[in-house]
């Protein structure tokens, strides 16, 4: 469908990022789920090169009842509106059957044909509503990966992935992000998993390593030119990997045919 697919939670600035990269006007608003249908745009370069981007609807945080850190240092007490909170309501059971069903994820089928994923994070984290826990950029990355893993059986996490931390123009972003940046760079580490404050049940089994992490502001355009050049290089690298893999598979297949020809037929010697 597109060379790059933008995935993330609502209001992370995916549509703003698409507009900043492609100069294509898109609907942008401060309320969640502004994007309801995938939108394709092209990023063009002075030499005529271009690549395509897909802006996808935001993923819903369906795990809001599971514990995570609220504003400050308190542990969250997440509950269903109108239902009194109990400790069992925020139970972090290790039984995967207790996880809520995936919702509004049919658009992810478009991601299957993308060469690379752009995981877009809000520099100040995400909170779905007043009943939900605040999610740090790190925990957002884990949760998005977990949703992609559940939906695709892990297939989508095998694709190259670039992390884009957006909204660096917001007050406090410059001071908050450095503490998360090292953890985002090493999400396979025990320290990163613990810092996410998510139960093991909500952590993906396979954690891909980001090709790169970019700190940008789609609103002001800060670091957008650098991101455009980086995405171009990544696409070239991904294409080279595909060709190398294809050559390797062809060579392996030829070796198997050679073995069959040399050793699997009867001898003709007297």
From TrEMBL:
Transmembrane segments: none annotated. One of its GO terms (molecular function) is GTPase activity. Gene3D superfamilies: P-loop containing nucleotide triphosphate hydrolases (3.40.50.300). Residues 2-59 form the OBG-type G domain. This is GTP-binding protein 10. It holds the Pfam family MMR_HSR1. Keywords: Nucleotide-binding. GO terms for cellular component: mitochondrion. It comes from Fasciolopsis buskii. It comes from the Eukaryota.
């Amino acid at each position: 469908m597109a060379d790059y697919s933008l995935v993330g939670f609502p209001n992370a600035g995916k549509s703003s990022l698409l507009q900043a990269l492609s100069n294509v006007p898109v609907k942008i608003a401060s309320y969640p789920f502004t994007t309801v249908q995938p939108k394709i745009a092209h990023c063009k370069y002075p030499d005529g090169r271009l690549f395509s981007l897909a802006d996808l609807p935001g993923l819903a945080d369906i795990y809001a009842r599971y514990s995570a850190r609220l504003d400050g240092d308190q542990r969250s007490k997440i509950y269903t509106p109108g239902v009194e909170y109990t400790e069992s309501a925020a139970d972090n059971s290790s039984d995967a059957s207790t996880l809520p069903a995936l919702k509004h994820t049919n658009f992810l089928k478009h991601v299957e044909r993308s060469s690379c994923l752009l995981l877009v994070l809000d520099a100040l984290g995400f909170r779905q509503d007043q009943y939900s826990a605040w999610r740090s950029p790190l925990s957002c990355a884990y949760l998005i990966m977990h949703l992609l893993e559940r939906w695709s059986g892990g297939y989508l996490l095998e694709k190259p992935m670039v992390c884009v931390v957006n909204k660096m123009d917001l007050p406090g972003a410059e001071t908050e992000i450095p503490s998360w940046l090292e953890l985002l760079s090493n999400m396979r580490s025990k320290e990163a998993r613990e810092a996410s404050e998510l139960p093991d049940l909500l952590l993906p089994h396979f954690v891909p390593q980001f090709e790169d992490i970019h700190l940008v502001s789609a609103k002001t355009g800060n670091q957008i030119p650098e991101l455009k050049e980086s995405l171009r290089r990544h696409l070239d690298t991904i294409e080279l990997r595909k060709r190398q893999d294809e050559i390797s598979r062809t060579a392996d297949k030829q070796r198997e045919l050679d073995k069959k020809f040399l050793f699997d037929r009867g001898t003709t010697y007297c």
